[in-house]
Amino acid sequence: MLLVPCPYCGPMNAADLSYNGESHRRPDPKTCTPEEWRSYLYLRENPSGWLLENWYCSSGCRRHFKIERHTLTGELRAPVLPGRKPGATQGDMK
Amino acid sequence: MSHRLPAPLGEVIDRSSAISFTWNGKKLQGFEGDTIASALLANGEHILGRSMKYHRSRGVLTADFWDPNTTVQVDDEPNVCASHRRLADGMAVSAQNVWPSLKFDVKAANGLVGRFLTAGFYYKTFMKPAKLWPAYEHVLAKFAPGGSVDLDTPHGRYDKRYAHPDVVVAGGGPSGMAAALAAAEAGSSVVLVEHEHQLGGHLLWGSDDDRAAANELAAACAAAGVEILTNSTVAGRYEDNWISISQRSHPGVIERLIKARAKTLVVAAGTIERPYVFQGNDLPGVMTSGAVQRLIRMYGVKPGTRAVVFTANESGDSAVEALQSAGISIARVVDARSGEGITSASGSKSRVKRVTLSDGTTVECDLLVTAVGWTTPTSLLNMAGDRPGDDADAARFFPAGPPDNVLATGGMVGDGSRDELIAHGRSTGKLAAGRAAVVRHRLQAATARAAAVDGPEPDYPADERAPLERARHPELYRSTTHGIVDYSEDVSSKDLFSAAGEGFDSVELIKRFTTATMGPSQGKLETVNTVAVLAEARNESIAEVGTTVWRPPYAPISLGALAGRINEPTRVSVLQPWHEANGATPILAGQWVRPEHYGDPAAEVRNTRTNVGIIDVTPLGKLDLQGPDVPKLLNLLYTNKWTALPIGGVRYGLMCAEDGVVLDDGVTARLGEEHYLMTTTSSGAAKIWNWIEMWLQTEHPDWQVHVTPVTTGLTSINIAGPNSRELLGRLTADIDLDPAAFPYMNVRRGTIAGVQNCITWRIGFTGELSYEIHVPSGHAVHVWEQLLEQGADLGVEAFGLEAQRIMRLEKGHFIVGQDTDGLSKAPVTGLNPLLKLDKDDWAGMPEVAWTMESGDHPVIVACQPDNGSVVPEEAAQILRSGTTEIVGRVTSSRMSPTLNRSICLAQVTKEFAAPGTSLEVLLVSGERITATVQEHHAHFDPEGARLRG
Amino acid sequence: MVEITHLDASPDTRVPKASVRAADGTAAAATLGLNFASSEQRGDTLVVRIRPDEWYLLGDGAPAMADGLDLSGFASTVDISHSRTAVRLTGDRAADTLAKLGSADFSDHMTPNGAALGNGIAGVTCDIVRDDQRGVRSYLLLLDGSFITYFLGALHDAASEF
To answer: Does A62 sit within 8 Å of B693, measured CB to CB?
Structure first.
């Protein structure tokens, strides 16, 4: 089971967090087209490579954050707190 | 015991401790320390079962954990490996997969029609005609292998434990023990896992020196504080060294599942002796060189009287010595290293009798021993991402490059003397400990709650171990004849050739088509031979053909261990003891146990509408909201407007998900300037809390709002009925209940029955005049009892969930998730006035707007079956009259004690929604009835006069 | 030996509890202090910084301490005396008992005395504080009160082997 680097708690078992899928941008509900809104609801990039994804530390600090994960190698980069951009590679636990 | 050898042979048995057991009803004796198989062989019982498909007689092949031929029923436990399970006093052991008996097995007729039962026959036969499938199934079921399950068997105790060892060592042979000891000496916490009943590995059936060395190492491990788990296996290795261990040695527990986060994993699984493929290779009396040594030296059992040994290595030579020491005559030693070979064996149904050598000569014997080489059980390394490669010179696979936190040692990586294996184990253990120390430091430094680290992070040690040499070994997989490749699945080399010929020629396909390697040993005995035969068929090398993917579990694991203690959390309100004592029929609603009724829900409805009723609605979700930006949050989550809600006001709200589908509903009260209390449905409480946190943290971190769940802290009691105001009035002095002072859809705080800080809402799910009081739970029992005492003359009675559901249906109040579903966008509810499209933003607004524009959506309506005594089943379909076209369905349906007729809510397309429309309802019985759409959702008191009084 | 005590078993023994939410930089956060995931006994109140922006005040002094806080700059308090219930687990096998039911590392270097964390125990999310009593290993567990009957059963079952 993956060890997820929660930015507050530290490395946590993935089962103690909620995985909230690929990070995506919410369009402006007042001006978007139905295509844009439905793309936000249902379409994802699903890249082979680095993926920015949402995690929620539900059993621990209860903070939402993002992590970049490489979908082929499983490598993780440093977590990203809301409102900030992804940072540099962090030493892993292996 | 006719086949027991005299002491000092039989190292693990205790001749002073005799054990009685039965075999197929026959009384036999063995000794403490025997396995079931060794005891049976000691008594001359050498046939232990019949093979899965062809029902051929089978005997001991490997005499160890992986023996494929010795699966037996023990008491009420099926599928026990007799070559591993220790004998216990009073055991009733019987053969599986035989009918009527082991000796005379009618199903062995399969052997005669064998050519029609080739691999994959079940894909090709028993197909037509389809109407005979039940008959086919009935007959085939009798031929299915496996023991019998007694449904009355008491459930045994299985449990679970988590662990965080520095080093886990999988395998307790000389290298594994040495690694565990070295790691412990270097300061690591170590868990050593061994599937046999004692540590020692191959040293246990070696020389006296070997056994002494094994005992010494085992004792040193124990003294160094290594946690030793015998009769246990490392079942799987997952990301970041998450490791599952099946432990069958914990007292009081049949099997325990340990889930460990190890910093380093050492794999010392040794090697597994491979059977040889040739005609007759599954005759009883054919066994591996390891089997013979184990039986003679460890258990003091005579495996035969006259032996032929086919040897290509030292283990075969050692088997010859063991046979000699047991006084068994050796008819011939066939040495592959000199170019000799065997082509086939033959015998009667019950025993091998003759071996044919490759030079054409034949030799009589009743025991044929093979020593043709080793398979490396690399599964745990594969699970860690390694792709081992085949070394043709050594005739086995070796690891290629597991990740840094997984280290292989011992027979997995090479060969050597006992001391060389121990030395490699020691250097591996030291390396494992060094790397574990770095990971331990990192984990501690990165964890917020942990103690401060001592100094800087240590250097990550490089792997500078001196490697073990790989001994050359001839490649011996299949002779020149066809034989069994997978004993437990009854797959022969002929089956593999023909499957490859049919096009199933990739290793993954041939595995699934023939089921080769899919038995209990999961390929440990069979994979290399399967790949070798496929390589022959394809005229390629083993390396080119490749192997299949190894997945957990490494060895069979019981379902009980995976289930563990079955901890299923349930929740109760503080009033639950009262409910139980007063005849409540419990119902499980989500995680909550609630009273469904107290004997007569219809009477509860009538009493509530006539007098007054009280119901425990504690599971109602309650969220405390504080902060200056709460109105912004409410406007975002709900479809309607919240900015102007006054202090003391209550408003109903509907919540949508971003796709416009109804998510939840409830009432929210303003308790103070910046203090609100939101209610959600009971099943929505946790979901909506998470929903709110997600919006606040990810989209609006600038908003100042704090959310705290108080569902359990406030016990909620709904007091409903014409006498509710009178009753509540008797319990409170500081809440003014005058309707002008406390109108409908308002909230007040005050003291009830002497309990301060109670919150009182005037709302009305049931449609009666009602007050919902929220009482700090520690005092709720007192308040409940006071209500019953003070209301006795007012006719107060408790009512349950069922009565509440009837009453809300009488009032046409929909329930999210009952009358709406996963496709119901907000306009389905008909609450269009609450869908404020002129607000800036709310969750799901765009989709709701587009739905309202198109108008193309079903709606909830109230309807009444024309025959008021018929109560349609919920989810009964509504059809266009006389057709099978579905135009809706009944979502809620009850007999109304108030109206004395059946009432429903339903979803229908717009075309059928007009009041007065006749609906055709298809009952489960197939009968169609008619129902009429009502003008209002409420079947009773549509103006709400009772509610607002 | 493992001692399991439900501290809120009766109204007389109920532990007063308050939750304080406050962002870094507010007066309340400055007053309560502490690093995230740590705790400190102050008089008869155990102060726990259980989440980066949330403190628990546990004990007889909790209501007064909560009432006395300066909530400006946006901080809030909620009385959770009846929402969260407290169970104390004490004894040399207390960590081993928790290890039967929860996946966190309860060893001394990862969860030293005073440490605080959230973890699922027997399927129930708990707030856990290591709070040794007179040198004896002890853990305070706070959980949603509605689970208490089930939870005590699971704890006793796990502790039975010790």
So the answer is: yes
Indicate whether B479 pLDDT > 60: yes
Report residue A70's pLDDT band, with 50, 70 and 90 as the boundaries: very high
Q: Is C131 on the interface with B (CB under 8 A)?
A: no
CATH of domain C3-10+83-159: 3.30.1360.120
pLDDT digits (tens, 9 = 90+) for A16-45: 999 999 999 999 999 999 999 999 999 999
Three-state secondary structure readout of B299-322? CCECCCCEEEEEECCHHHHHHHHH
| Domain C17-79: assigned CATH number | 3.30.70
Domains of chain A from N-terminus onward = 3-70 (3.30.2270.10)
Q: Which residues of B touch C36 (CB under 8 A)?
A: 448
Q: Which of residues 574-613 of B touch C (CB under 8 A)?
A: 574, 576, 592
Q: CB A2 to CB B240 under 8 A?
A: yes
Parent domain of B769: 580-808
Q: Which residues contact B634 (CB under 8 A, 6 or more apart)?
A: B625, B642, B645, B653, B668, B676, B678
Q: How confident is the model at residue B102 (pLDDT cuts 50, 70, 90)?
A: low
How would residue B929 be classed by pLDDT, with cut points 50, 70 and 90? very high
Let me know whether B421 and B531 are in one domain.
no
Contact C117 A9 (CB under 8 A): yes
Contact assignment for C35 to B573 by CB distance below 8 Å: no
Q: What is the ipTM of this complex?
A: 0.97
Q: Does any CB of chain B come closer than 8 Å to the CB of residue C162? A: no
Nearest chain C residue to A60 by CA: give it. Answer: C118
Q: How far is A84 from chain B (nearest CA, A)?
A: 11
> How much is the pTM?
0.93
Q: At B864, which helix (H) or strand (E)?
A: strand B859-865
SS (H, E, C) B39-104: HHHHCCCCCCEECCCCCCEECCCCCCCCCCCCEEEECCEEEEECCCCECCCCCEEEECCCCECCCC
Average pLDDT for B771-798 = 97
